[in-house]
Every structure is written in C-alpha cells, then in structure tokens.
Amino acid sequence: MWIRKTRGWEIKESRATPEAVFRDRRRFMAGAAGAILAPGLLACEKEAGADTAAGEADPTADLYPFARNERYQLDRDLTPEADATSYNNYYEFGTSKNIVKAAQALPLRPWAITIDGMVAQPRTIDIDDLIKQMPLEERLYRHRCVEAWAMAVPWSGFPLAALVKLAEPTGDAKFLRFESFMNTEAAPGQSEAWYPWPYVEGVTLAEAANDLSFMVTGMYGKPAPKQNGAPLRLALPWKYGFKSAKGIQRITFTDQQPVGLWEAIQGSEYGFYANVNPAFAHPRWSQASERLLGSGERVPTQLYNGYGEFVAELYPDVNDRRYFY
Ligand SMILES: Nc1nc2c(c(=O)[nH]1)N[C@H]1C(S)=C(S)[C@@H](COP(=O)(O)O)O[C@H]1N2
Ligand SMILES: [Mo]
C-alpha cells in the first residue's frame, strides 16, 4: 500500500525557498529587462513552474495558496511538482510529453472567458474577475491519463457547480461544452490541420453539478504553469485525463451532446463519458493498472479512479462500455 509521507512542498521552509527566489527573479527582471538570466535562475524557474512572462503579471497571484478542502483525501503520495509540471499532454504545443518550453509562448493575459448558449444572459468575463467571484479552495486529486500514467496533484480552483450557478442555465440545457483557446501563432500544433482545433470537451449538466467537478486555476499552492493549462482548466478526476480540457476560453450550455476533439478523431477509442474503469481495456492496451509519475511504480487502477462514492450514481450500468471509454 502507499504510505502517506510528509510532502516536501507542504513544508513551509522548502516551499518558501523557490517562492522567494521567484520574487527575486521578478524584481531582477523588472530592473534589467533584456538582461541575460543566469542559468541557475532559469533552472529554478522551470522547477517552480513559475511561468509568468515579463509584462504579463497575474493579478490573482496574491490569493494563493487557497485553503484546502479536506473532504478530498488521497491514498497515495502527491506527485513531485517537478514531475507533474514537466510531463504533459498538450497537443496544441506538440505531440510529445515535453512541451514546457513551447507552452511558454501562450499569452495568458488578457484572457476572457465566454459563457454562452442556453443561459439567462450570455456574457464574457475577464479571468481575473471570474476568479475573484468564485469560492476558492485547494483539493488533492488523482489524475489518470487514458495512456495509463497517473499523478496526484494539489489543484487550486473552484467548484464547476459555482460557475454553473453564475451562468444560470435555462431549463433546456443538458450539457456543457468546453472550448480551449485558438492561437496558431503561439501554438504550433494548431497548424496541424489533421486535428480539428480548437480542443473541445464536454460533460452533462449533472456531471458539472457533481461536487467533484473542479475548475483549476493553480497547482502546488500557486498559479498553474502554462503547460498544465493555465489560466483555466478542468479537473474531472473520475474520468480519463483527456476530458479535463486545458486553456479554456469558452463554456457553452447546450442541449446537444458535445463531441470532443479525441472523439471526433477516433470515436471508437475515445468516447463522451470516458469514466475510468480497469475492467474495460482500451482497444490497444489494458487499463487494469497505471504508472505513477515520479516513482514509476505500477499500481492497480480503480473503478471511477477511486471516486465511486461521489459519482457512481450518475451512471446506471457499470457493465455498459458506453460509460467507460
Ligand atoms: N487543450 C488541451 N487540453 C488537454 C489536452 C490537450 O492536448 N489540449 N490533453 C489532455 C490529456 S490527454 C491529459 S492526460 C491532460 C494532461 O494534463 P497535464 O499536462 O496537466 O498533466 O490534459 C488534457 N487536456
Ligand atoms: Mo491523457
């Protein structure tokens, strides 16, 4: 079994160290724009996931860390920050796991979120105004990629249910459709015409209202780095990772079941529900176990990624493959 150890990043002292260096770096950069950064500072920037480019300050940075909601407990160690922020899936920036550098080209401010479709009043909200209106908290969640790697992350953000409430969906709305940014200049992958950009994902209104559905703005007690989906992404921990869209710019309430990017490309392998279930293999590999980022340990995969107590009631038949790919 997994032994719960004290996590390095939780210790005040060790967390304060990269933060202090980060603040120094910003002061340094403000005073010497265009100066060549010492290699040590660059290395630190990558390690701490401090992604904000010069002149692109994050006005919500002072709100972190958010108070942890203790309802969401892990049965395993948190993934080291350096691993969770350097091994990524973000096809807008390339098909490899190593897109950290490429993702830094994405401008994060200004960033507008459009909420439209079947809502009382369609609107566009600045990301910082949205964050300041939402009930902010930290949650420790597991994440399970359909490719069978997994991590455990302290996400910062707010319940998706709070955004649904703000949106005031009409009685006809049955689904939420999430659309990610489109920026072919910053994201070279979006020039690969083979993919139907922008990235799209969706959930039912009932799934969106579930306590587990979380909108992420940060991780490890600070704003999320670009490679992990800043400034706004989803965390749907009972579903395969591709459902958790990153770089979200538009949320549409609709009566049409959204077709995600992966479903559009390969609907026989990537479906709408994509709930984690070790009993249903991907057509090309087993889903019975997963590899933990960091330790590399292989552990058994759990039904709904271990979150059945929260979400099992949403799905009427645990033997119906429709819900599990
Ligand atoms: N916009 C966008 N969102 C995305 C993806 C992507 O390629 N583009 N990849 C998905 C997949 S397959 C996974 S596993 C997670 C990875 O998130 P991480 O890089 O923060 O670990 O993001 C998901 N969200
Ligand atoms: Mo994934």
CATH topology: Sulfite Oxidase, Chain A, domain 2
Catalogue the unreliable spans.
1-52
Total strand segments: 12
CATH architecture: Alpha-Beta Complex
Radius of gyration: 19 Å
So how many helices?
9
CATH class wording: Alpha Beta
Write down the overall geometry: globular
Q: Pairing-aware structural class of the strands and helices?
A: alpha+beta
CA-to-CA gap between the ends? Answer: 27 Å
Q: Your description of this structure?
A:
- With 325 residues, this protein is α+β, with helices and mostly antiparallel strands.
- It has one domain: Alpha-Beta Complex (Sulfite Oxidase, Chain A, domain 2), CATH 3.90.420.
- It is built from 9 helices and 12 strands.
- The strands form 2 sheets. Strands 3, 4, 7, 8, 9, 11 and 12 form a 7-stranded mixed β-sheet that branches. A 5-stranded mixed β-sheet has the order 2-1-10-5-6.
- β1 (112-117) and β2 form a beta hairpin.
- α1 (12-31) crosses α2.
- The two termini are 27 Å apart.
- Mean pLDDT is 88; it is low at 1-52.
- Residues 88-92, 145, 180, 199, 228-229, 241-242, 244-247 line the site of ligand MTE.
- The ligand Nc1nc2c(c(=O)[nH]1)N[C@H]1C(S)=C(S)[C@@H](COP(=O)(O)O)O[C@H]1N2 is lined by residues 88-92, 145, 180, 199, 228-229, 241-242, 244-247.
Topology:
Blueprint: H1 12-31, H2 39-48, H3 81-84, H4 100-103, E1 112-117, E2 123-126, H5 127-133, E3 137-144, E4 149-159, H6 160-167, E5 175-180, E6 200-204, H7 205-209, E7 214-219, E8 222-223, E9 233-235, E10 248-254, H8 261-265, E11 289-292, E12 298-300, H9 308-311
Parallel strand pairs: 1-10, 4-11
Antiparallel strand pairs: 1-2, 3-4, 4-7, 5-6, 5-10, 7-8, 7-9, 11-12
The structure holds the ligand Nc1nc2c(c(=O)[nH]1)N[C@H]1C(S)=C(S)[C@@H](COP(=O)(O)O)O[C@H]1N2 and molybdenum atom.
Ligand MTE is lined by residues 88-92, 145, 180, 199, 228-229, 241-242, 244-247.
